[in-house]
């Protein structure tokens, strides 16, 4: 039981490290979003200025105009990818938090025989651990479903825009 408890503690620690990494990723995504927004304004202004020139009206700046349109397209897609990545990060955070809670519950169930001693039969402890494992598996399944739903919801919103 102590080996299982140590493994559970290790998994919980890894989940916490992953949650911190996901938090850092979310901050990087926010920074990227701000940069894309600023760059989008700059490129849009350059495009408006180019369109205002007489030479463009006569068709002389087609290459420049195509380049600016390409930049705007790229910037808009980066924003969409950022939204998708943010949704994945949020779903992963929810999943990790749920799994961490379930693992803590399972760790407590595994440690219960050491705390209580011989007063409760081994069969009862085994049933408790089995119930904890089933709950952990159900939590993992729910986490996957939540992540898929978040992605579907995000993609559905983007398709409507």
UniProtKB/TrEMBL annotation:
Annotated Basic and acidic residues bias: 142-161
Stretches for region Disordered: 137-161
Residues forming coiled coils: 8-42
Keywords: Coiled coil
Domain of life: Eukaryota
Protein name: Uncharacterized protein
Organism expressing this protein natively: Phanerochaete carnosa (strain HHB-10118-sp) (White-rot fungus)
Lineage summary: Eukaryota, Fungi, Dikarya, Basidiomycota, Agaricomycotina
């Amino acid at each position: 039981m102590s080996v299982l408890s140590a493994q559970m503690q290790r998994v919980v620690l890894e989940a916490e490290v992953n949650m911190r990494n996901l938090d850092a990723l979310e901050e990087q995504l926010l920074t990227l979003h701000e940069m894309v927004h600023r760059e989008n304004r700059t490129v849009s202004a350059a495009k408006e200025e180019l369109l205002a020139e007489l030479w463009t009206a006569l068709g002389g700046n087609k290459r420049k105009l195509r380049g600016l349109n390409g930049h705007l397209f790229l910037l808009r897609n980066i924003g969409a990818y950022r939204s998708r990545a943010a949704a994945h990060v949020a779903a992963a955070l929810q999943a990790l938090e749920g799994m961490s809670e379930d693992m803590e519950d399972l760790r407590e169930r595994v440690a219960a025989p050491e705390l209580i001693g011989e007063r409760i039969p081994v069969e009862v402890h085994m049933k408790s651990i089995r119930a904890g494992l089933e709950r952990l598996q159900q939590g993992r399944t729910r986490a996957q479903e939540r992540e898929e739903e978040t992605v579907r919801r995000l993609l559905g919103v983007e398709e409507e825009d």
